[in-house]
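Troubleshooting log. The previous run stalled partway through. Resubmitting the same two chains, unchanged.
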Amino acid sequence: MDNAKLSALKKTAANIRLGILEGVHAASSGHPGGSLSIADIITYLYFSEMNVNPADSRWADRDRLVLSKGHTAPALYAALAEKGFFPREALATLRQADSFLQGHPDMKGTPGVDMSTGSLGLGVSAACGMALAAKIDGKDYRTYAIIGDGESEEGQVWEAAMFAAHYKLDNLCFILDLNGLQIDGKVTDVMNPTPHDKKFEAFGFNVITADAHDFESLEAAFAAARACKGKPSVIIANSVKGKGVSFMEGQVGWHGSAPNDEQYAAAVAEIKAVL
Amino acid sequence: MADKIATREAYGNALAEFGDKYDFVVLDADLAAATKTGIFKKKFPERFFNCGIAEGNMMTVAAGLAAAGKTVFASTFAMFAAGRAFEQVRNSIAYPHLNVKIGATHAGITVGEDGATHQCLEDIATMRSIPGMAIVNPADAVEARAAVEWAINYKGPVYLRFGRLAVPVVYDRDTYNFEFGKNITLREGKDVTIMATGITVDMALEAAKLLEADGISARVTDVHTIKPLDKADVLDAAAKTGAIVTVEEHNVIGGLGSAVAECVSEGRPVRVLRVGVEDKFGRSGKVPALLEMYGLTPAAIASEAKAAVALKA
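Second attempt completed without errors. Output:
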């Protein structure tokens, strides 16, 4: 990756992080930790990997993203706003009664949202359906789904994995956000779903490992997924919950709570220092 | 009367028949032989996808297919469609109002020998409580075929309820016309209206004959569309006959009886007596024995209709 692209992606990711914090702070609720852990992944998807058209959000041949871990909607909204699907000012309306930015993604109300999600374990199956539709219609668009590691405790994730491999959905790529934390604590303490690599491999996936916060690593991972034929891919993305805001990093308490004014100012200052 | 045929059989035949005319795909969860989607599979193997024994995944896969522009039928037993996969139907299909047709077979106690775990008596209640979900419960093979063609062309989620049992054919295929959300008056009457749905429509017609012999004139209505309910017709029945008996192969809680009672109590209060399964689970047995045991017979319906007439002010 050349320096200009790397620098542009880093800047975009920082803006997306600011958007996440702005929404969650304005709403006084939401899920900053897991939104920040996928900020670089979603940046790479929308600003390098995916073929989408903000002027025609329902374009039939677009690549699709299903945010299966739907509670991290603030990251998706910030990316969509950054991409131009809707004005950035809308981010501050997150979770308000008159807003089109629901607490969890709503494909009917928000331009650019490809699937309504929020109930964990469901989005992966929807992504399988989209990938299968592309196969049926002979189209070459790709479908991506971001899964949480806590979410992988849901049985339906594995029903979907079985389905994806059975129908050889090589146009489908899961990204597992391996941040190690869920609401009640460490994922391995609450209900250990590891080892993800061996599980997905046994389910028939092309398993790729990446650093969720290194764009060159993500670039190589998505290229490897694209190159794989005959089976679906999963990118196991090693991430840090709360990434980019030092006092949120690796802290389970920031899974589902919003920063107060003081914390918000500190977080914004820290991210702006990157810009 | 023509030969008996199960509505699930008519469903499978209709999918295969209309597969030539319309572009849609069919999913099943390892029950294609029983739900009769296997008939479609045989004719259109490239448009049939078995999801294995994973109904929740199937419903959300259907949603994903629909989100990508496909018209989808997803089939399994009513118990697993409306019960096990309720949340997937609610959140993945109905909340985004996607174009998925849920073909739910083996509804009710007429599943017979398999018993309570496979006899869904709660599906109308669960599906009815989901915003925007259309519910169609055909009375016979003719209505089932027509409902399938209607569903293919309707944009949005539909719950289609079919039975396992071979039942008499009520309608003439050449003259039958399915109108979504419009009740069909099968027999005029002035003393009471029997509003039936699904395979109980034929029983209601038999009950009306019994009542006629006793000097009671019963109007008989086929409520094939339970949601949205044909409120105008229900209120007309209330106004003109002064009493209503509902009949369904479903728990009396939450189904057709509840829907009619809600409508009548708000719009034209008259007595509504409900014939159905009285808040019980099903059980194994031969179908005739079960129908007798659970009070789903022409005689039981006629008896309830007489009670309703007697209660009129």
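Takeaways: Chain B has a mean pLDDT of 97. Chain B touches chain A through 28 residues (CB under 8 Å).
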